[in-house]
Amino acid sequence: MGDTGPTGPVMDRDEVDRALARLGAEHEAIETSLLALQDHAGRRLLEGAELTGVTRERWAAAEASITLLWTYFDAYAGALRTAREIRARRRWSSREDLAELTELLRGEAVTVAGSAATAGAPAPHGGPGRLSERYSLVTLVDRMNQLYAASLDLVVAADAVWSALPARIDLLAAELQRTRRLAHSVGVRPGEHPAGDDLERITRSLTKLRERVVSDPLAFWLPAEGSSAPGGGRPDTTVYDREARALEDVRREIDAVLAVRQDAEQRIVRLRDLLSRADRTLAEARTARGEVLAKIAATEVPVVSGPPTVLQEQLATAAEYRRHAQWHRLSPLLESLEQKAEDELLRARESLTAVTAPLAVRAELRGRLDAYKAKVTRLGFAEDPELVEKYEKARRMLWSAPCDLRVAEQAVLRYQRAAADVLGSAPRVPGQGGPVDRTGPGA
Question: What confidence score (pLDDT) does residue 228 get?
Fold first, then answer.
């Protein structure tokens, strides 16, 4: 057709029929989406909830958007109905009908009362506050799509948070209650044990978290970066995850307390044995010190301390805790005592070694002297006057009390050198082995 109007060339009958079919399909799709949004569980929850914070603000705007959506849809449906009525007047539409349909289908022929003000956005032909606005059907569909996507995104996000977090919080709270009962049975209570204080804090945190999630779900929503799909994102579980980890730490602490209850007697018996062995070792060291002071002269002998009474007192406290089932106090005390008892036994052994060191030196000198004497005798020089004299002198020093170790060691060295000189100058005796060993007493 050659006729034109304000919206361009007038549409022919085929173009009108195709446009009406397309608009009818769009109408059905939009209506289905709006009804689905109306029936969405998240929207119903939002309508009935006592909202706070960012969710209350955004839901108030979304409600206005949904109301405007239906207003737009009604205007769209009305325009489509009018167009269908015009097309149905005649089987072969007149030029006037086609011009009217062209204006209705392509022009800004749809009037929406107060739409710009309700939407809170500038209208195409003026600022907000106008009593009505005119739109084309294409523009109207675009605006409905935008409002629908934003409203659906909010509803889906809130529903996702409500579907995920409260149930998980309730499960964790139930586990928390079981843990509290178990903790109470082993004496882990607030004000008496750090784990008891942690349980109280976790309880308060979960209670507050659930209240906030129910009243302000959008505060716990993390949108997906770069995603334009409605509901793109995930619930923010940061606080929940932190408290779940804290509860797991408490459970491990209580497990440790339970383990103490099971083997407390065995550990206390082992501690008594360790401290008893340490005491006996120290007593032996004190006895040895008296012997060293009596038998060894000119030697500094370290003082031996007595058994630490504080460990015995702590051991008695541990036994008292066990009798009164105070496992939460017994657990750290046993761990500390076990390390201290091991250290005390090691200290006692080191003290005994240090005290008896002069006796060990004397024994080594005696053994060296006798070994050289045996070798000299085996090789036939037992009656050598010089060797006999030096041997007797060294022997008197080593077997007398108190023994001066420095003087005795010099005497042994003189006997060794004299024996080496005698053995080195002696001819080889057939049947008595090879050359004389100058470095030691030999086998």
Answer: 65
